[in-house]
Prior knowledge:
The protein has 465 residues and is an alpha+beta fold.
Amino acid sequence: MNSVHKTERDTCRLIITRRNASEVLLLPSGRSWSLLSVEILRGERIAEQLTAQLHAQCGFQAYCLFMSSTATSDRAPQNGRCAVMETLKQNDNAPAGTQWVPLAAVERWDEHTTDAALRESIRQLRTHQRKSSTGPFARPGWFRDLFQWAQEQIDPLGLRMTGYFRQLNASPTFSLIRLETTGPAVWFKATGEPNLHEFPVSVSLARLFPEYVPAILGTRPTWNAWLSREVSGQELDQLKEYSGWERVAEALANLQIASIAKRVELVESECKDLRLRKIIGLVDPFLARMADFMASQEKPSPAPLKKSELCLLGNRLKEACWQLQDLGFPDTLGHIDFSPGNILVSPERCCFLDWAEGCVTQPFFTFEYLREYTRQNFPQDGAVAERVTAAYIRPWRFFFSAHAITRAMAVSPLIAVFAYAVANKTWCSSEALNNPSIAACLRSLTRRMNREAKYVLEESERCLN
Protein backbone atom coordinates (compact mmCIF):
# COMPACT_ATOMS: atom_id res chain seq x y z
CA MET A 1 0.00 0.00 0.00
CA ASN A 2 1.21 3.46 -0.80
CA SER A 3 2.29 5.07 2.47
CA VAL A 4 0.72 8.42 1.57
CA HIS A 5 -2.72 6.79 1.73
CA LYS A 6 -2.16 5.88 5.36
CA THR A 7 -2.38 9.53 6.43
CA GLU A 8 -5.02 10.73 3.99
CA ARG A 9 -8.55 10.76 5.35
CA ASP A 10 -12.06 10.84 3.96
CA THR A 11 -15.21 11.97 5.70
CA CYS A 12 -17.92 9.32 5.82
CA ARG A 13 -21.48 10.24 6.77
CA LEU A 14 -23.57 7.62 8.54
CA ILE A 15 -27.19 6.63 8.03
CA ILE A 16 -27.66 4.58 11.20
CA THR A 17 -30.91 2.63 11.51
CA ARG A 18 -32.55 0.37 14.08
CA ARG A 19 -35.71 -1.71 14.53
CA ASN A 20 -35.74 -3.16 11.02
CA ALA A 21 -34.87 0.23 9.50
CA SER A 22 -37.96 1.90 10.93
CA GLU A 23 -35.89 4.60 12.66
CA VAL A 24 -32.80 6.59 11.76
CA LEU A 25 -30.34 8.42 14.03
CA LEU A 26 -30.08 12.15 13.29
CA LEU A 27 -28.52 15.28 14.73
CA PRO A 28 -30.90 18.24 15.31
CA SER A 29 -29.51 21.26 13.50
CA GLY A 30 -31.72 24.29 13.99
CA ARG A 31 -34.94 23.64 12.10
CA SER A 32 -33.35 20.82 10.12
CA TRP A 33 -31.43 17.63 10.76
CA SER A 34 -27.97 16.40 9.86
CA LEU A 35 -26.14 13.06 9.77
CA LEU A 36 -23.41 11.80 12.06
CA SER A 37 -20.02 11.55 10.38
CA VAL A 38 -16.61 10.04 11.04
CA GLU A 39 -13.21 10.29 9.42
CA ILE A 40 -11.69 7.16 7.91
CA LEU A 41 -8.20 6.42 6.63
CA ARG A 42 -8.03 6.13 2.88
CA GLY A 43 -6.92 2.75 1.60
CA GLU A 44 -7.94 0.87 4.76
CA ARG A 45 -10.98 -1.40 5.19
CA ILE A 46 -13.99 0.92 5.41
CA ALA A 47 -16.46 -1.34 7.24
CA GLU A 48 -13.96 -2.19 9.96
CA GLN A 49 -13.19 1.48 10.58
CA LEU A 50 -16.85 2.48 10.64
CA THR A 51 -17.92 -0.13 13.19
CA ALA A 52 -14.94 0.60 15.44
CA GLN A 53 -15.36 4.37 15.38
CA LEU A 54 -19.10 4.24 15.90
CA HIS A 55 -18.65 1.99 18.93
CA ALA A 56 -16.02 4.35 20.34
CA GLN A 57 -18.12 7.48 19.79
CA CYS A 58 -21.64 6.25 20.49
CA GLY A 59 -21.13 3.22 22.70
CA PHE A 60 -23.20 0.76 20.70
CA GLN A 61 -22.43 -1.96 18.19
CA ALA A 62 -23.57 -1.54 14.63
CA TYR A 63 -22.73 -3.17 11.35
CA CYS A 64 -22.50 -1.76 7.86
CA LEU A 65 -25.18 -2.79 5.36
CA PHE A 66 -23.75 -1.07 2.29
CA MET A 67 -22.01 2.04 1.03
CA SER A 68 -24.57 4.28 -0.60
CA SER A 69 -23.93 5.05 -4.26
CA THR A 70 -24.25 8.74 -3.35
CA ALA A 71 -20.65 8.36 -2.19
CA THR A 72 -19.51 8.85 -5.76
CA SER A 73 -22.36 11.02 -6.96
CA ASP A 74 -21.37 14.03 -9.06
CA ARG A 75 -24.41 15.88 -7.75
CA ALA A 76 -23.06 16.20 -4.22
CA PRO A 77 -19.33 15.43 -4.19
CA GLN A 78 -18.79 17.61 -1.13
CA ASN A 79 -20.79 15.19 0.96
CA GLY A 80 -18.15 12.47 0.70
CA ARG A 81 -18.90 8.83 1.39
CA CYS A 82 -22.17 7.61 2.91
CA ALA A 83 -22.63 4.34 4.78
CA VAL A 84 -25.95 2.76 5.66
CA MET A 85 -25.68 0.91 8.99
CA GLU A 86 -27.87 -0.91 11.49
CA THR A 87 -27.49 -1.26 15.25
CA LEU A 88 -27.03 -4.79 16.54
CA LYS A 89 -29.51 -4.25 19.40
CA GLN A 90 -32.99 -2.93 18.76
CA ASN A 91 -33.24 -0.56 21.75
CA ASP A 92 -29.91 1.26 21.89
CA ASN A 93 -30.35 4.74 23.34
CA ALA A 94 -29.57 7.73 21.17
CA PRO A 95 -26.22 9.31 22.13
CA ALA A 96 -26.31 12.77 23.66
CA GLY A 97 -27.32 15.42 21.13
CA THR A 98 -28.90 12.92 18.72
CA GLN A 99 -32.38 11.52 18.28
CA TRP A 100 -34.04 8.45 16.78
CA VAL A 101 -36.47 9.67 14.12
CA PRO A 102 -39.12 7.50 12.37
CA LEU A 103 -37.89 6.75 8.88
CA ALA A 104 -41.42 7.07 7.51
CA ALA A 105 -41.51 10.67 8.76
CA VAL A 106 -38.16 11.43 7.11
CA GLU A 107 -39.51 10.11 3.80
CA ARG A 108 -42.35 12.66 4.00
CA TRP A 109 -40.05 15.63 4.51
CA ASP A 110 -39.77 18.25 1.80
CA GLU A 111 -37.04 17.24 -0.64
CA HIS A 112 -35.74 20.82 -0.77
CA THR A 113 -34.95 20.77 2.95
CA THR A 114 -33.90 17.13 3.32
CA ASP A 115 -30.32 16.05 2.82
CA ALA A 116 -29.99 14.62 -0.71
CA ALA A 117 -27.62 11.87 0.42
CA LEU A 118 -30.05 10.82 3.15
CA ARG A 119 -32.98 10.67 0.70
CA GLU A 120 -30.99 8.63 -1.82
CA SER A 121 -29.66 6.25 0.83
CA ILE A 122 -33.18 5.64 2.15
CA ARG A 123 -34.38 4.95 -1.39
CA GLN A 124 -31.65 2.36 -1.87
CA LEU A 125 -32.39 0.82 1.53
CA ARG A 126 -36.07 0.41 0.62
CA THR A 127 -35.06 -1.20 -2.67
CA HIS A 128 -32.92 -3.75 -0.84
CA GLN A 129 -35.79 -4.49 1.55
CA ARG A 130 -38.20 -5.19 -1.32
CA LYS A 131 -35.87 -7.07 -3.68
CA SER A 132 -33.89 -10.00 -2.32
CA SER A 133 -32.09 -10.24 -5.66
CA THR A 134 -30.07 -7.11 -4.86
CA GLY A 135 -28.07 -9.06 -2.29
CA PRO A 136 -28.75 -10.55 1.16
CA PHE A 137 -26.30 -8.39 3.13
CA ALA A 138 -27.97 -5.04 2.49
CA ARG A 139 -31.21 -6.24 4.08
CA PRO A 140 -31.83 -4.98 7.63
CA GLY A 141 -31.89 -7.76 10.17
CA TRP A 142 -29.62 -10.17 8.31
CA PHE A 143 -26.99 -10.04 11.05
CA ARG A 144 -29.41 -11.68 13.49
CA ASP A 145 -29.90 -14.48 10.96
CA LEU A 146 -26.12 -14.82 10.72
CA PHE A 147 -25.65 -15.18 14.47
CA GLN A 148 -28.39 -17.78 14.73
CA TRP A 149 -27.05 -19.79 11.79
CA ALA A 150 -23.43 -19.56 12.97
CA GLN A 151 -24.45 -20.78 16.43
CA GLU A 152 -26.08 -23.83 14.86
CA GLN A 153 -22.82 -24.64 13.06
CA ILE A 154 -20.67 -24.45 16.21
CA ASP A 155 -23.12 -26.22 18.55
CA PRO A 156 -21.49 -29.64 17.86
CA LEU A 157 -18.16 -28.18 19.01
CA GLY A 158 -19.59 -27.10 22.36
CA LEU A 159 -18.95 -23.42 21.58
CA ARG A 160 -21.16 -20.36 22.06
CA MET A 161 -21.20 -17.05 20.23
CA THR A 162 -20.12 -14.13 22.45
CA GLY A 163 -21.78 -11.41 20.36
CA TYR A 164 -18.51 -9.69 19.52
CA PHE A 165 -17.54 -9.39 15.89
CA ARG A 166 -15.17 -7.67 13.49
CA GLN A 167 -16.64 -6.72 10.12
CA LEU A 168 -13.97 -6.38 7.45
CA ASN A 169 -16.05 -6.19 4.28
CA ALA A 170 -19.57 -4.94 3.62
CA SER A 171 -21.59 -4.89 0.43
CA PRO A 172 -24.92 -6.33 -0.71
CA THR A 173 -23.27 -9.52 -2.04
CA PHE A 174 -19.85 -9.75 -0.34
CA SER A 175 -19.17 -10.20 3.35
CA LEU A 176 -16.18 -11.01 5.55
CA ILE A 177 -16.72 -11.10 9.32
CA ARG A 178 -14.78 -12.50 12.26
CA LEU A 179 -17.11 -13.85 14.94
CA GLU A 180 -15.84 -14.44 18.45
CA THR A 181 -16.86 -17.56 20.37
CA THR A 182 -16.13 -19.00 23.80
CA GLY A 183 -13.26 -20.84 22.09
CA PRO A 184 -11.52 -20.24 18.75
CA ALA A 185 -13.02 -17.51 16.59
CA VAL A 186 -14.78 -18.37 13.33
CA TRP A 187 -14.87 -16.54 10.01
CA PHE A 188 -17.94 -15.94 7.90
CA LYS A 189 -17.29 -15.27 4.23
CA ALA A 190 -19.64 -14.78 1.29
CA THR A 191 -18.88 -13.76 -2.28
CA GLY A 192 -20.86 -12.42 -5.20
CA GLU A 193 -20.08 -11.64 -8.82
CA PRO A 194 -17.46 -11.97 -10.21
CA ASN A 195 -16.21 -14.30 -7.44
CA LEU A 196 -19.15 -16.67 -7.06
CA HIS A 197 -16.78 -19.54 -7.85
CA GLU A 198 -14.79 -18.99 -4.64
CA PHE A 199 -17.51 -20.78 -2.67
CA PRO A 200 -17.34 -24.16 -4.46
CA VAL A 201 -13.55 -23.88 -4.77
CA SER A 202 -13.12 -23.28 -1.02
CA VAL A 203 -15.48 -26.12 -0.11
CA SER A 204 -13.65 -28.54 -2.41
CA LEU A 205 -10.20 -27.58 -1.12
CA ALA A 206 -11.29 -27.98 2.51
CA ARG A 207 -12.50 -31.48 1.70
CA LEU A 208 -9.54 -32.54 -0.44
CA PHE A 209 -6.64 -30.86 1.37
CA PRO A 210 -7.63 -30.18 5.00
CA GLU A 211 -3.98 -29.96 6.05
CA TYR A 212 -3.41 -26.82 3.96
CA VAL A 213 -6.64 -24.75 4.22
CA PRO A 214 -9.03 -23.70 7.02
CA ALA A 215 -11.63 -26.23 8.15
CA ILE A 216 -15.15 -25.38 6.99
CA LEU A 217 -17.78 -25.73 9.74
CA GLY A 218 -20.86 -25.00 7.63
CA THR A 219 -22.10 -23.69 4.31
CA ARG A 220 -25.06 -21.54 3.31
CA PRO A 221 -25.51 -21.90 -0.47
CA THR A 222 -28.34 -19.35 -0.70
CA TRP A 223 -25.85 -16.74 0.50
CA ASN A 224 -22.92 -18.31 -1.38
CA ALA A 225 -21.27 -18.36 2.03
CA TRP A 226 -19.32 -20.54 4.40
CA LEU A 227 -18.13 -20.55 8.01
CA SER A 228 -14.58 -21.62 8.78
CA ARG A 229 -12.51 -22.13 11.89
CA GLU A 230 -9.88 -19.47 12.55
CA VAL A 231 -6.34 -20.65 11.90
CA SER A 232 -3.57 -19.61 14.27
CA GLY A 233 -0.29 -18.34 12.95
CA GLN A 234 1.54 -15.31 11.60
CA GLU A 235 1.06 -13.86 8.16
CA LEU A 236 4.03 -14.73 6.00
CA ASP A 237 4.90 -11.13 5.18
CA GLN A 238 5.29 -10.44 8.92
CA LEU A 239 8.03 -13.06 9.29
CA LYS A 240 11.55 -11.66 9.35
CA GLU A 241 13.27 -15.06 9.38
CA TYR A 242 13.67 -16.70 5.99
CA SER A 243 13.07 -20.18 7.47
CA GLY A 244 9.34 -19.45 7.50
CA TRP A 245 9.46 -18.65 3.81
CA GLU A 246 11.30 -21.90 3.16
CA ARG A 247 8.59 -23.83 5.01
CA VAL A 248 5.88 -22.17 2.91
CA ALA A 249 7.72 -22.98 -0.33
CA GLU A 250 8.05 -26.65 0.60
CA ALA A 251 4.42 -26.82 1.78
CA LEU A 252 3.28 -25.32 -1.54
CA ALA A 253 5.19 -27.97 -3.47
CA ASN A 254 3.74 -30.78 -1.35
CA LEU A 255 0.20 -29.40 -1.77
CA GLN A 256 0.65 -29.22 -5.53
CA ILE A 257 2.03 -32.76 -5.71
CA ALA A 258 -0.95 -33.99 -3.66
CA SER A 259 -3.31 -32.22 -6.09
CA ILE A 260 -2.04 -34.00 -9.21
CA ALA A 261 -4.60 -36.79 -8.90
CA LYS A 262 -7.40 -34.25 -8.28
CA ARG A 263 -6.94 -32.03 -11.35
CA VAL A 264 -10.24 -32.89 -13.02
CA GLU A 265 -12.15 -32.51 -9.76
CA LEU A 266 -10.56 -29.12 -9.17
CA VAL A 267 -11.60 -27.82 -12.58
CA GLU A 268 -15.12 -29.14 -12.00
CA SER A 269 -15.21 -27.26 -8.68
CA GLU A 270 -14.68 -24.05 -10.71
CA CYS A 271 -10.97 -23.51 -10.22
CA LYS A 272 -9.83 -21.38 -13.13
CA ASP A 273 -8.62 -23.43 -16.07
CA LEU A 274 -5.14 -22.19 -16.93
CA ARG A 275 -3.72 -25.42 -18.29
CA LEU A 276 -1.11 -24.97 -21.00
CA ARG A 277 -3.39 -25.82 -23.91
CA LYS A 278 -5.81 -23.13 -22.72
CA ILE A 279 -3.02 -20.59 -22.23
CA ILE A 280 -1.55 -21.20 -25.70
CA GLY A 281 -4.96 -20.56 -27.25
CA LEU A 282 -5.16 -17.14 -25.57
CA VAL A 283 -1.79 -15.80 -26.79
CA ASP A 284 -2.93 -14.45 -30.18
CA PRO A 285 -6.23 -12.84 -29.05
CA PHE A 286 -4.56 -11.30 -26.00
CA LEU A 287 -1.74 -9.70 -27.97
CA ALA A 288 -4.17 -8.48 -30.64
CA ARG A 289 -6.00 -6.73 -27.84
CA MET A 290 -2.74 -5.35 -26.49
CA ALA A 291 -1.99 -3.85 -29.90
CA ASP A 292 -5.16 -1.75 -29.44
CA PHE A 293 -4.09 -0.83 -25.91
CA MET A 294 -0.62 0.21 -27.06
CA ALA A 295 -2.13 2.32 -29.84
CA SER A 296 -4.38 4.11 -27.34
CA GLN A 297 -1.49 5.07 -25.05
CA GLU A 298 -1.24 8.85 -24.76
CA LYS A 299 2.00 9.23 -22.78
CA PRO A 300 5.23 8.88 -24.77
CA SER A 301 7.01 7.03 -21.96
CA PRO A 302 7.40 4.16 -21.44
CA ALA A 303 7.29 3.59 -25.16
CA PRO A 304 4.38 1.44 -26.36
CA LEU A 305 5.36 -1.86 -27.93
CA LYS A 306 5.14 -2.00 -31.72
CA LYS A 307 3.08 -4.62 -33.53
CA SER A 308 6.28 -6.32 -34.66
CA GLU A 309 7.44 -6.56 -31.04
CA LEU A 310 4.07 -7.98 -29.98
CA CYS A 311 4.25 -10.55 -32.79
CA LEU A 312 7.71 -11.64 -31.64
CA LEU A 313 6.49 -11.76 -28.04
CA GLY A 314 3.63 -14.02 -29.12
CA ASN A 315 6.06 -16.45 -30.76
CA ARG A 316 8.24 -16.54 -27.67
CA LEU A 317 5.27 -17.11 -25.40
CA LYS A 318 4.13 -20.08 -27.47
CA GLU A 319 7.65 -21.49 -27.65
CA ALA A 320 7.97 -21.25 -23.86
CA CYS A 321 4.64 -23.04 -23.40
CA TRP A 322 5.66 -25.80 -25.82
CA GLN A 323 9.00 -26.22 -24.04
CA LEU A 324 7.24 -26.56 -20.69
CA GLN A 325 4.74 -28.98 -22.20
CA ASP A 326 7.55 -31.16 -23.57
CA LEU A 327 9.13 -31.41 -20.12
CA GLY A 328 6.09 -33.34 -18.93
CA PHE A 329 5.29 -31.51 -15.70
CA PRO A 330 1.68 -32.18 -14.64
CA ASP A 331 -0.94 -29.52 -14.10
CA THR A 332 -1.61 -28.96 -10.40
CA LEU A 333 -3.49 -26.68 -8.06
CA GLY A 334 -2.24 -23.12 -8.48
CA HIS A 335 -2.95 -19.60 -7.28
CA ILE A 336 -2.75 -16.45 -9.42
CA ASP A 337 -2.75 -14.11 -6.40
CA PHE A 338 -0.38 -15.94 -4.06
CA SER A 339 0.01 -13.11 -1.56
CA PRO A 340 2.03 -13.53 1.66
CA GLY A 341 -0.81 -11.77 3.49
CA ASN A 342 -3.01 -14.79 2.74
CA ILE A 343 -0.53 -17.36 4.09
CA LEU A 344 -0.44 -18.20 7.79
CA VAL A 345 2.58 -19.91 9.34
CA SER A 346 2.51 -21.66 12.70
CA PRO A 347 4.80 -24.27 14.29
CA GLU A 348 2.31 -26.95 13.19
CA ARG A 349 1.62 -26.06 9.56
CA CYS A 350 1.33 -23.55 6.73
CA CYS A 351 -2.22 -22.56 5.82
CA PHE A 352 -3.29 -20.94 2.54
CA LEU A 353 -6.32 -18.60 2.52
CA ASP A 354 -8.52 -16.86 -0.06
CA TRP A 355 -8.88 -19.03 -3.15
CA ALA A 356 -10.81 -16.70 -5.47
CA GLU A 357 -7.80 -16.92 -7.80
CA GLY A 358 -7.34 -20.66 -7.40
CA CYS A 359 -6.61 -22.41 -10.67
CA VAL A 360 -5.31 -25.55 -12.33
CA THR A 361 -2.08 -24.82 -14.15
CA GLN A 362 1.62 -25.60 -14.24
CA PRO A 363 3.03 -25.73 -10.69
CA PHE A 364 5.95 -23.36 -11.12
CA PHE A 365 3.72 -20.38 -12.00
CA THR A 366 2.43 -20.07 -8.43
CA PHE A 367 5.92 -20.36 -7.06
CA GLU A 368 7.04 -17.46 -9.27
CA TYR A 369 4.68 -15.16 -7.37
CA LEU A 370 6.09 -16.41 -4.06
CA ARG A 371 9.65 -15.95 -5.32
CA GLU A 372 8.87 -12.38 -6.40
CA TYR A 373 7.47 -11.56 -2.95
CA THR A 374 10.56 -13.13 -1.37
CA ARG A 375 12.78 -10.73 -3.29
CA GLN A 376 10.62 -7.79 -2.22
CA ASN A 377 10.70 -8.78 1.46
CA PHE A 378 14.43 -9.52 1.52
CA PRO A 379 15.84 -6.96 -0.95
CA GLN A 380 19.28 -6.88 0.67
CA ASP A 381 19.84 -10.62 0.70
CA GLY A 382 19.59 -12.36 -2.66
CA ALA A 383 20.58 -15.65 -1.06
CA VAL A 384 17.16 -15.87 0.62
CA ALA A 385 15.39 -16.26 -2.72
CA GLU A 386 17.85 -19.03 -3.58
CA ARG A 387 17.13 -20.85 -0.31
CA VAL A 388 13.37 -20.53 -0.82
CA THR A 389 13.74 -21.82 -4.38
CA ALA A 390 15.76 -24.80 -3.14
CA ALA A 391 13.08 -25.58 -0.56
CA TYR A 392 10.39 -25.52 -3.24
CA ILE A 393 12.37 -27.70 -5.64
CA ARG A 394 13.22 -30.32 -3.01
CA PRO A 395 9.92 -32.31 -3.15
CA TRP A 396 9.88 -32.15 -6.97
CA ARG A 397 13.31 -33.81 -7.14
CA PHE A 398 11.65 -37.14 -6.27
CA PHE A 399 9.76 -37.00 -9.60
CA PHE A 400 11.85 -34.96 -12.06
CA SER A 401 15.51 -34.49 -12.85
CA ALA A 402 17.42 -31.40 -11.83
CA HIS A 403 17.89 -30.57 -15.52
CA ALA A 404 14.14 -30.68 -16.23
CA ILE A 405 13.35 -28.56 -13.18
CA THR A 406 15.99 -25.98 -14.16
CA ARG A 407 14.57 -25.70 -17.68
CA ALA A 408 11.02 -25.38 -16.36
CA MET A 409 12.04 -22.69 -13.87
CA ALA A 410 13.78 -20.74 -16.66
CA VAL A 411 10.64 -20.26 -18.78
CA SER A 412 8.07 -20.10 -15.98
CA PRO A 413 8.51 -16.37 -15.11
CA LEU A 414 7.43 -15.40 -18.63
CA ILE A 415 4.35 -17.62 -18.73
CA ALA A 416 3.45 -16.77 -15.12
CA VAL A 417 3.04 -13.09 -16.04
CA PHE A 418 0.89 -14.05 -19.02
CA ALA A 419 -1.24 -16.39 -16.90
CA TYR A 420 -1.81 -13.56 -14.42
CA ALA A 421 -2.88 -11.21 -17.22
CA VAL A 422 -5.44 -13.61 -18.74
CA ALA A 423 -6.70 -15.19 -15.49
CA ASN A 424 -9.86 -13.12 -15.65
CA LYS A 425 -11.63 -11.58 -18.63
CA THR A 426 -10.81 -7.96 -17.86
CA TRP A 427 -8.40 -7.77 -20.80
CA CYS A 428 -11.15 -8.58 -23.32
CA SER A 429 -14.01 -6.65 -21.69
CA SER A 430 -15.68 -3.82 -23.56
CA GLU A 431 -14.88 -1.31 -20.81
CA ALA A 432 -11.15 -2.04 -20.62
CA LEU A 433 -10.12 0.29 -23.46
CA ASN A 434 -12.04 3.17 -21.88
CA ASN A 435 -10.66 2.59 -18.40
CA PRO A 436 -7.22 4.27 -18.17
CA SER A 437 -6.12 2.34 -15.07
CA ILE A 438 -6.98 -1.08 -16.55
CA ALA A 439 -5.34 -0.20 -19.85
CA ALA A 440 -2.19 1.05 -18.10
CA CYS A 441 -1.98 -2.09 -15.97
CA LEU A 442 -2.29 -4.40 -18.99
CA ARG A 443 0.29 -2.43 -20.96
CA SER A 444 2.66 -2.70 -17.99
CA LEU A 445 2.14 -6.46 -17.77
CA THR A 446 2.78 -6.84 -21.48
CA ARG A 447 6.02 -4.86 -21.25
CA ARG A 448 7.02 -7.08 -18.31
CA MET A 449 6.37 -10.15 -20.51
CA ASN A 450 8.55 -8.64 -23.23
CA ARG A 451 11.42 -8.16 -20.78
CA GLU A 452 11.04 -11.69 -19.46
CA ALA A 453 10.97 -13.08 -23.02
CA LYS A 454 14.24 -11.31 -23.84
CA TYR A 455 15.80 -12.63 -20.65
CA VAL A 456 14.71 -16.20 -21.47
CA LEU A 457 16.26 -15.84 -24.95
CA GLU A 458 19.51 -14.46 -23.54
CA GLU A 459 19.73 -17.31 -21.02
CA SER A 460 19.13 -19.89 -23.76
CA GLU A 461 21.90 -18.41 -25.92
CA ARG A 462 24.25 -18.31 -22.93
CA CYS A 463 23.60 -22.00 -22.25
CA LEU A 464 24.26 -22.88 -25.89
CA ASN A 465 27.54 -21.00 -25.84
